[in-house]
Structures are given as structure tokens and as C-alpha cells.
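Dear colleague,

Thank you for sharing your sequence with our group. We've completed the structure prediction you requested, and as agreed, I am returning the results in plain text so they can be pasted directly into your records. Please verify that the sequence below matches your submission; if there's any discrepancy, let me know and we will rerun it promptly.
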Amino acid sequence: MQLDFHYYATYCAAYLAGFDHNESVGIAYFAQFVDECHAALLKKLNAPAEAATTQLQMELLDSRTDLLGLQNITRIWSSFHFLPADLYVKRRGTKFYLNKYRLICGPDGELLKKTVELAKNKDLPSAGLAMHVLADTWAHRYFAGTPSLVINNTDQHFFELFPDGTRKKIVFRHKTGADEPEKGLYSNSIFQNSENSIMNLGHGRAGHLPDYSFCVYKYLPAWGDYMELVKDNPSDYWNAFRQMIYALKYIRDDIPEFETGIYDEEAVAGYEDEINAIIKKRQVDASMDWRSFGEKLSGETIPDFDIKLYQEEYLAAGTDKKKFTCLGLFFEAAMRQKHMVSHEIFASRNPLAGIFTKKLFGK
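Please find the predicted C-alpha cells below.
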């Protein structure tokens, strides 16, 4: 997902869940900040390197591809963007590929429940981080947060499906510039036949296609025994939006327990057509539509996302006070989430994320 959903749609979900305008902005801000918190920024802020929730393209290109390097990549991408759906799923094959198969992202898994529960009774940065992870389980399903040609590759059999039953072949090319949905042209990562190439991380081989809520597509993943698999983004994004509302009601203590497979119906009553119209509109950036909907809900102006917003506060705080700043709370939430996911992967006897042992601030 992109800023349109992680920031503006998350604001809408938070407001519908009962948070006020300022709280909703805070949750939305830190949902988007998961896509901004990379090693270079943390170095600039003299913040814990272990709090990284994403990696810049240049950082990935410079990453080691030995076991330790791959473990660092997997800890970040599996924890925050490709949360595994089932670490114990059964499948025939070698242990090497089974370990990667078990990292395939999907919604409503046990790790999602743990992610939402980690944010309970915490703070807005923790809630925002959890909403980013939750939303991505829907957008990024069928891809894994570890480099893998077998899991993440795409081939020539890739089609967009339309409501009238027709289909259009999707053409991927490695080219800078905007995607062209009307022509079926999308940019993606360069093909590399190395199983562990960083070009085969996540949905790089499918470009931004999983990030577009309007798209329904089908392809032949190698891990699926080359059977056609349909990815219905409009349905998945609709579920993601309603599940965020439900999860945020739990986080604000309106619901005693968070259960997977439940998507809020009450809060969206009367807005179904408007929300689905935004989701299904053929556009690569739905920010303005989500923003307009959010401002209609609250009657307030949603500020633009500003990555520098909380940096001065963090830099000015004394060493013993940094953990109480907005960024400090986010960094602690990030390390808490990374520790939980890495531990669960390691406990499943899967070595691909290693073990994360860094202590949190002052603990």
C-alpha cells in the first residue's frame, strides 16, 4: 500500500473507530511513517538502528546476501510489510523452500492478532504502526518479506480482470516513471535468476500492482504449482479498511478482545458505496479522494504528511527523555514488533529471520 491508504484511509478508519481528529491524524501519521523509517534517517537522528521499519532502494542494493544479511532484510520486511499468515503451514518440499513458503504474507493470521494486541493500551505511534502492518497483510498477500525467486517471481502469464469478464495482459518493464494502467504497463524490479537476489524481495517483481486498490489480477506463482491465482484488491482493501476500524476499536478499549476474521459493519453503515467507489476508481494515487472523505467525516482539515514533523522534538530531547517523544515511542513500538515477529519465526524453527535480542529503551 501507499500513502493514500496508509495515511488518508487510516485517518478515516481511526475517525470512524471513535478517535478524534488529532488522534486520527497521529495514528495515520505513524501508519505512514513505517514506510519512511530507514537506516539513513535513524543515523541522522542518532536513533537506534534496530528501529528501522523499511529500507531504501540504495540500502537494499548495498545489503549483504549471506545468511546474516538476509536475516536482517527478512526481520524488517516480514515484521512490517509482509506479515506471515501461517508459520506452521504444511507443504511438501525441501526444508529450505518450506521455510520461505511459511513466510508468505496473508491476512487474519496468528501474528496479526499478536500485532494488534501489542498496540493495546499503548500510544498513537503503536496504533499507527499496527495499522500499517494490518493493512499490508491484505495488499501484500501471496508475497513474502524475504528474497525468493520461487515465492515472489512473476512471469508472462499475468492478466488484469475486469467486471465484464474480459481481461488484459499486464506488461512489466523496468522503467522509471508512472505506471500506465490504461495501457497495462507497469514497472517492476529487474529479473534475476538468483533465488536470494534482493530483486526478488516482496512484490518487487509485480511492481506497485498490489498497491493499487482498483486492480483484480491473476497470475501463476511457482509456489502454487503453476495454478492460476486471483488477487482481488477491491475486496481485500474493503476488508482491510473495515478490519482497521475493528482493530482500532479494540485498541481504544471499546472491544474487550481482538479476533481475526471480523470486519466492522456498523461504523461503515451508510458509507459503503462512497468507500467502495474510492477503492474501485482506476487511479494510481487515491490520496485526494480519501482525504476528501476524511474531511467530510470530521469537518476538519487533514494536514499533509510531513516526515520532519517530530524530528526537532526528538533531537532536542535529552537522552533520558527521548523515549517519551513521539518518535521515541514509535522506535520502541518498532523494536517491540520486530522482536515479536522475529521470535515467532525463530520459534517455528525457521532460521530466516534469525533472532532479535536488542533491548528496548532503558529495559
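Summary note from our side: The two ends are 33 Å apart (CA to CA).

Kind regards,
the structure core
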